[in-house]
Design a protein that fits this description.
flat; 0% strand; 4 helices; mainly alpha
Length: 98
């Protein structure tokens, strides 16, 4: 049983690496060979991004638990997201610094 589980894990990991490499190649318009060559760097970068995302979410949740007026913060966050969506739908663009 352990051999099968280990083999399945290896196949899943290899598929994830190939998928990430093709995703990066498509995003940056690179040839697939270049993305495959940089696959270890791509995997490490995605791992670090996932770690930072989980860390920031955890910190935000811990800080949110300490807040006294939770409803105010929730309303403010929803209003901010609604404002961003509304301005994006209206086509408002921020000035670019050059």
């Amino acid at each position: 049983m352990r051999v099968r589980a280990s083999f399945k894990a290896w196949v899943a990991a290899a598929a994830a690496v190939v998928a990430l490499s093709f995703l990066v190649a498509w995003l940056f318009s690179w040839p697939a060979e270049k993305a495959m060559f940089l696959a270890p760097v791509i995997v490490v970068c995605f791992g670090l991004l996932a770690f930072l995302f989980v860390l920031w979410i955890r910190i935000a949740l811990l800080q949110f638990r300490r807040v006294r007026h939770r409803r105010r913060w929730i309303v403010a966050a929803v209003a901010f997201v609604a404002l961003v969506v509304l301005l994006s739908a209206l086509g408002v663009e921020l000035p670019r610094m050059e």
